[in-house]
Amino acid sequence: MKLVTNARLAGRDGLHDIEIDGDRFGRVAPARGPAGDVPAGGLTRDVPADAADVLVDAAGGLVSPPFVEPHVHLDTTLTAGEPRWNASGSLWEGIAVWSERKAALTRDDVVSRATEVLRWYAANGVLHVRSHVDVTDPGLVALDAMLEVRERVSDVIGLQLVAFPQEGICSFENGPELLEEAARRGVDAVGAIPHFEDTREDGVRSLEIAFDVAQRYGLLLDAHCDEIDDEQSRFVEVLATLARRGGLRDRATASHTTAMGSYNGAYSYKLQRILARSGINLVCNPLANLCLQGRFDAYPKRRGLTQVKEMLAAGVNVAFGHDDVMDPWFPLGTASSLQVALVGVAAAQLTGAAEIDEAFAMVTDRAARVLGLGDGYGIAPGRPANLVVLPASSPYDAVRRQTRPSHVVARGRIVAETPPAVTRLTWPGRDPEDVDFVRTSDR
Ligand code: FE2
After folding, report:
1. Ligand 1: distance of its center to the CA of 71 in Å?
2. How many CB atoms lie within 10 A of CB 210?
3. What is the pLDDT of residues 204-252, one digit of tens each?
4. How far is the C-alpha of 195 from the C-alpha of 268, rounded, in Å?
5. Which residues form the Amidohydrolase domain (predicted)?
6. pLDDT in tens, 81-103
7. CA 263 – CA 42 distance, rounded (Å)
8. Interior CA angle at 86 toward 130 and 329, to 5°?
């Protein structure tokens, strides 16, 4: 039995000790005092006799379940500039550039780039990742490579794969057959891209096909939905209604939903009810979509984002995703969920203190709901022993100061350690001192 000691847990007073038994959590109880006193309710049995039993002393830092990436494209990652840069910066040129790069795709190419970014995710404490994989490729090269990667990383990262028809289901030759073949080969979820299809009718039909495949193979569904600044792109109502009527409900997700940024008030109000009733999840990708949307606008220029604040208030589960790490759609990124949360706070105007905590939940608990992790996530007895230790006093503090996890624990083992960053400041009239960006009145 090992212990994570002196852990600060969101929503609970005081510090706690967390037992880890093999690859599972044991009990969680009030921490022993500095002198070894055992408080009421503390771990009076199996208390460690020496420091050898302490896996990590969190020293009062925030201990959280790991970060969860609900939306990334690992088959396209690290290809920014290949074979050319996306000069206009639009989603559409990004798809055209990727189509050129896709012609040169090999198994080794996909495996090495995806694995490199998954290592970055693990280093940042992201231990669950949902990746879309382009299946509009007759050879399904990327899909087979990613199925192999999913297996290889499974000791550290739980990777979900979505069969993503980047160039359409109805509008791409053999699109339905390729989607079905991807389901047969073992993806976790079925995707769609209704706003990209040639006609509105094709868009609706593509969602019906995706739901049919998901239901026949017992899979989750996650569609790129309304990723366009067209107020008439309203496929999310179709997705939600299919999810409700077919019973998929919270096993279905609409990603991007940027057209929401252009919907009028009357339709937005109607949509809140449709989405809340359906139980579906939404994933907003603020880094990519702040860059991609509004490219056809003169000023005033629209943000082109999911109505995050309004949908949360309506009771819809919304999570934040990265979408792209250095690819034709977004040239930056280090696979950091805290960076996504910070940009999400600004983009969705979640600036109340409770809203900043909520942004943290959108890259942890809420994202876990998108992936349907259930009892496979969270710090509680019997659950997989996955956690991050953040040198921060609260989720708000972690988002603000962008604190890298000091420790990442996966399946009961430390897989990443980050020494604290120390800045030494020499200021006129004062001795040199460390600056950690904590407000004096908060100490
Ligand atoms: Fe995406």
Report:
1. 6
2. 29
3. 999 999 999 999 999 999 999 999 999 999 999 999 999 999 999 999 9
4. 18
5. 55-416
6. 999 999 999 988 998 999 899 88
7. 53
8. 15
**Cα torsion at 261, 266, 268, 272 (round to 10°)?**
170
What tens digit of pLDDT does each residue of 102-144 get? 888 999 999 999 999 999 999 999 999 999 999 999 999 999 9
Active-site residue flag, 227: yes
**Cα separation of 420 and 437, whole Å?**
13
Q: Say if CB 308 and CB 348 are below 8 A apart.
A: yes
Helices and strands of the chain, counted as H and E runs: 13, 18
**DSSP character for 65?**
P
Which residues have a Cβ under 8 Å from the Cβ of 49 and sit 6 or more positions away?
none
Is the bond preceding residue 83 a cis peptide, omega within 30 degrees? Answer: yes
Q: Ligand 1 centre from 414 Cα, in Å?
A: 31
Residue count of the chain: 443
Amino acid symbol at 441: S
Q: Which residue among 227, 231, 355, 433 is the active-site one?
A: 227
Predicted TM-score (pTM) of this structure: 0.96
DSSP assigned state of 156: T
Query: Ligand 1 centre from 223 Cα, in Å?
Result: 9
* Pair of tokens at residue 290: 């702040």
- Using CA atoms, how far apart are residues 336 and 418, in angstroms rounded to an integer? 14
Tokens 């299809």 correspond to 197
C-alpha distances out from residue 224 to 71, 162, 317, 413, Å = 10, 11, 16, 35
Instruction: Specify the residue for token string 């990727």.
Output: 98
Q: Are 259 and 228 in contact (CB under 8 A)?
A: yes
d(C-alpha 59, C-alpha 428), whole Å: 32
